[in-house]
Amino acid sequence: MTAIDADRELDGSSAGGQFLRTALDLAALKNETVRLEHVRGDRSTPGLRHQHLAVLETMAEICDADVSGSELGAETVAFDPELADGDSRATGTATPQLEGGEYAVDIGTAGSVTLLFDSLLPLATILESPLRVTATGGTDVKWSPPLDYFRHVKLPLLRRYGLTAACEVERRGFYPDGGGRTTLHLAPSTIEPIELAERGSLEDVRIYSTESESLADRDVAFRQVEGALERLGVEEREGESGSDLEIAERCETTAASPSPGSALVVRIDHGTGVAGFTALGERGKPAERVGEDAADAANRFLEREDAAPVDRHMADQLLVFLAIAGGRVRVPEVTDHVAASCELLEDFGAAIEIEGEDGDRGETDDARPATVTAEPSIGSSASR
């Protein structure tokens, strides 16, 4: 393929797949060409894996982009979206315009469907018509959000700020065969400023437990929930309002899947939003332990006196929306992912500030909470 002249040159030598996904989003939102060198350079197997290649190819198809480096193992990638200019629904100013449509993606392995869908969500802010993407791959696999986290934690939180999105599940896909099949529905959306600087009063807990059909005779989904409830001590915990923290929803699902597997998500609802904590079943690991692992993470979140309103994984995933709409998010800690995402957003012109317990960004301790503030500076909300 003919070499692609890039508007921006980026170095991924100290980053992973999230850096690639966010860079592609930002390129689309600004209708700019980007070249990434040393893709996933800090991983033991650098370059594009199946799920990263699926993201690149899907974004290229949706955005009518020219691409170089679209092959497994590629460590240099260029992405040149060809989007028409339109008028922002929010401001009337010029902004990229993306037509919707229907697309199908087969990741080909147990590569993460939820990470693919994550990369598509920001496109809702420049959509002119609904977008539907059906993906086949891993729905509940390591190193990515389980499907119920995506459906019951992330999407509900983003809907509060204007995202119009839904996820339809046909089949679950566990490691190693994958084979899950889900559909993401996106509609044109205007994101409102995100205000998540304080947690607010604790309200209730929701638990989503899933087992493959092959594990149903062992009551895995039920036992995972029981393990979580015992470790949470829900009946003994009291929220700030003085009332017991109650179980608002308990969902146990037996799902068709080519591979045996299980997953559990604990969702904590509080005054300003939601936070989620997850665990996956593993061969030889008691189902009760799966529930306990997710509950332990939830307990650590609940016991933190600094009261960040989002979990550490959501903190990173919200940043691109923060740059689109502006606002504030208090994060549990400045992880490597958070720091890398902030730097990437700044490379694309976003106005980002991080304030830690001890003052400015340079003094922020990665183990301490921090508040990330942004002005609307990217996409259709930038001139709000």
TrEMBL record:
InterPro entries: RNA3'-term_phos_cycl_insert, RNA3'_phos_cyclase_dom, RNA3'_phos_cyclase_dom_sf, RNA3'_term_phos_cyc, RNA3'_term_phos_cyc_type_1, RNA3'P_cycl/enolpyr_Trfase_a/b, RPTC_insert
Gene this chain is encoded by: rtcA
Name this protein carries in UniProt: RNA 3'-terminal phosphate cyclase
NCBIfam families: PRK04204.1-2, RNA_3prim_cycl
Its job: Catalyzes the conversion of 3'-phosphate to a 2',3'-cyclic phosphodiester at the end of RNA. The mechanism of action of the enzyme occurs in 3 steps: (A) adenylation of the enzyme by ATP; (B) transfer of adenylate to an RNA-N3'P to produce RNA-N3'PP5'A; (C) and attack of the adjacent 2'-hydroxyl on the 3'-phosphorus in the diester linkage to produce the cyclic end product. The biological role of this enzyme is unknown but it is likely to function in some aspects of cellular RNA processing.
Keyword entries, A-Z: ATP-binding, Cytoplasm, Ligase, Nucleotide-binding
Occurrences of domain RNA 3'-terminal phosphate cyclase (ranges): 15-349
PANTHER family, A to Z: RNA 3' TERMINAL PHOSPHATE CYCLASE, RNA 3'-TERMINAL PHOSPHATE CYCLASE
Region feature Disordered, mapped onto this chain: 353-384
Reactions that this protein is recorded to catalyse: a 3'-end 3'-phospho-ribonucleotide-RNA + ATP = a 3'-end 2',3'-cyclophospho-ribonucleotide-RNA + AMP + diphosphate
E.C. number: 6.5.1.4
Subcellular location, record wording: Cytoplasm
